[in-house]
Amino acid sequence: MAGIAAAGLAAAGGWWGPGAAAHCPPLAHVLRVPLRMPSGAGVALTFDDGPHPQGTPAVLEALAAAGAQATFFLVGEQVQRRASLVREIVAAGHEAAVHAHRHRNQMRLSPRAFTSDLERAVGVIGDVLGRTPAYYRPPYGAFTLPGLRGVRRRGLAPILWSRWGRDWDGRTSPAQIASLAVGEIRAGDVVLLHDADWYCSPGAYRKTVAALPRIVAALAQRRLDAVRLPPVLGAG
Q1: Is 117 assigned a catalytic role?
Q2: What is 35-51 written as a DSSP string?
Q3: DSSP code of residue 203
Q4: Residues in Cβ contact with 157 at an 8 Å cutoff, skipping those fewer than 6 apart
Q5: Catalytic residue list contains 48
Q6: Active site residue: 48, 49, 117, 197, which one?
Q7: Per-residue pLDDT for the chain (236 aa), expressed as one digit of tens each?
Q8: Pick the catalytic residue: 94, 101, 103, 194?
């Protein structure tokens, strides 16, 4: 029955469009894709779409100033151009993970095309890290059943998010980004942000950088630490 339910929900996701699993917790639960970390583990700040020559260093600087840690979901085609920024991410104590090789909606790719993209991303990012990355998050938060199986077969842990700042939208202000990200935040939440504007509103990362001090200060007021994703995360 679980397999039938998963197939039906995944088919519905094709109609709902990008981000279906992230916006529908019951679907994520059926697919066993975590939206959060185990409770009591702080709050995970995560950044998608980098590395970026201006955005990534600015985010790293803001995180360092706040004493915060984060996880960066990287795009392989950008890593090929800016591998040194990946090394800076890791040297600063943050985690590097896989987003894609090319930033495309998984629902629009054939299983073969997705597998090729995933393998290329893991190879490019893994070569820079010197190890296989642990986590994978799809562009737009969209999973297909074949894609999800491929991610797990590759030994990657799928993860989505429980809160976001809508920082990809050029109309969202730094104050709004911070409010959306931490409005009702609690231990275990995973916050989606972006350190690059390759695939969203031009210059959007500047507002993310401006919002970061407010986000970290709000976490501190709630006695929550900004942390990396843990080494192992259960898929439940």
Answers
A1: no
A2: SSPPTTS-EEEEEEEE-
A3: T
A4: 34, 134, 135, 136, 232, 233, 235
A5: yes
A6: 48
A7: 334 334 444 443 443 333 456 557 788 888 889 999 976 779 999 999 999 999 999 999 999 999 999 999 999 999 999 999 999 999 999 999 999 999 999 888 898 999 999 999 999 999 999 999 999 999 999 888 889 999 999 999 999 999 999 999 999 999 999 999 999 999 999 999 999 999 999 999 999 999 999 999 999 999 999 999 998 654 43
A8: 194
